[in-house]
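Researcher: Here's a chain I'd like modeled. Treat it as a single chain, no partners, no ligands.
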Amino acid sequence: MPMFALLPPDLVFAARLLRKSSGFTLVAAVSLALAIGANTTIFSVAKQLLFERLDVPHASSLRLLATTDFSYPVYEHLRAQNTVLGDLLAFHATAANATVGDNAERVRLHEVSGNYYEVLGVRAQIGREIRPSDDMPGSPAVAMISDAFWNREFARSPAAIGRSIKINDVPVTIIGVNPKGFTGAGSTLPSETPAVTVTLAKATLVTPASNGRNWLADPAAGGLIVLGRAKPGVSDRAAQAALDVQFAAIVRAALPIHAGEALPRLTLRDGSRGLFAQQQAFATPIAVLMMFLGLVLLLACANIATLMLARGARRQREMSVRLALGAGRGRILRQMLVESLLLATIGGLSGLALAYAGRGAIAQYTPHFDWQVFGFTAAITIVTGLLFGFAPAFAALRTEIAASVKRRHAVGRSVVGFQIALATLLVIAAGLFIRSLAGLTSVNPGFRTDHLLLAQIVLPQNRYPAGANVAFHQRMEQAIAAIPGVASVAGAEAPYLSGEQLETTFLPQSEALDASRNQTAPYNAVGVDFFNTLGIPMLAGRPFNEHDTGASPNVAVINQRLAATRFPHENPIGRFVSVGVYSGYGDILSSGPLEIVGVCGDTLYENLHEPPSPQLFIPYAQQTQVRRLTYMIR
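Model: Modeled as a single isolated chain. Structure tokens:
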């Protein structure tokens, strides 16, 4: 008789036994479901973050041209001179206000070169894609929308093609819908999918520069992401060498390079995962979490093995009788393993259902379940069934009662010892995690975090030009402050602990520009009541007040760290500094001298892990453009 001929009867018999021991079955299935479900969820997230490629044809041939900042003129020159890669595409990722009828929302926006879809090989699911002719001066403003945006705003109606919507108050015509699953060329994460895609030719209308300059024509205005296709027969090393020469020549011709300043480097990287460097930060936490959950699964197996050993003691007489009647040991072993695998299958299917139901529980990530996820779940289900099934099965085959009892006790002691070791390890790991979490919650960020609400407003440039947006934010601050229950309110361009950091050159009047030194500092444009609202102490001088306006002399407040770094042996109050936007290519856009009127306490800026950094504060009321402001309300 073939080896697996009796499997169906074994399955029926195993199902009857499990149904008869419903309490044991329920406890074991729930334990397995929780452990397998957690492992499946983390595997699906890890797969999406670390291993999944862009959903485009031949993604492995994509190459990312990484540098400090890519401007449109530099991209155009490099594209024209490139001979070692296929055609180069460019895009700019940002956010915008999208208005459909009376409904407005904040969405992700990609501004792309006309060859974007052609290079990626992506076709619209309805309508057509953006073409090079759409990216020419004077061409109509057109847009592609994502599948989710199409479903949300137009209920998947084909009539969406040809409809006009507004992006930052600029009318654009929908010409196509991106295929489902296409997340753009920047990331594999569904949360990063652009809802709307427009051409770079219309970028200066849709997202104009805050300084009013045409950023597409400015060689110092970076922000573009550039990708290309590998050329058959040209190695990455050869392509890198050729691009180094071309890029250096273009930068020298297009940008002012100061004496002693190093040229920006261009690095050719794998582009199959988009800007994968942003996602690599998750590699270590995910690996640690998977190891932790693997131990949880092993502990669940050990618990079930202990239960099955105790259950097997009651079946010893049954095994002895079956062996006496001529049943082979292999036959009995197989039947018991089938029982274990059936129990594991119940737990595995329940775990998969739990993982699917909770797939959106991790913020920003909604992993999709494919054959690889199912395969992973099936594999750990089988391994789990074998792990907790073998020891009880072998112990049950001992026919001598005395020897069987001793054997079972020995196996039981081994399993219990394994459980204790795993449980101890998990408790220690959990203790370290709780300690780290408690440490983070006890970190003093340098400002008050209690009773603080945040709200952000981004104003369209064409409706609120220079000056008008500053006045709007001032009126909004006054209106919020008048709300009953609001103690104070202040705006800031870069809210604390948001991961955002604005940077500027910082040159005291006694210093000259020196490319060999770091003469930059993080800065923040803030409202008059900023320091009072956040409870940041003033150590010297004064905070900003209502007299610090665009009509008064420019002023600044620096923190203690910046004062110690740049004015180590002198009082910074009353000193003048020059600041400007640092482009990354050495270009400085001067904004005139600022008088330092105050020194405040140090605060954490980007996150809770890094020490306080030097910080410069300027009143946003003295800026010409403030499109986006986050209101901190206490």
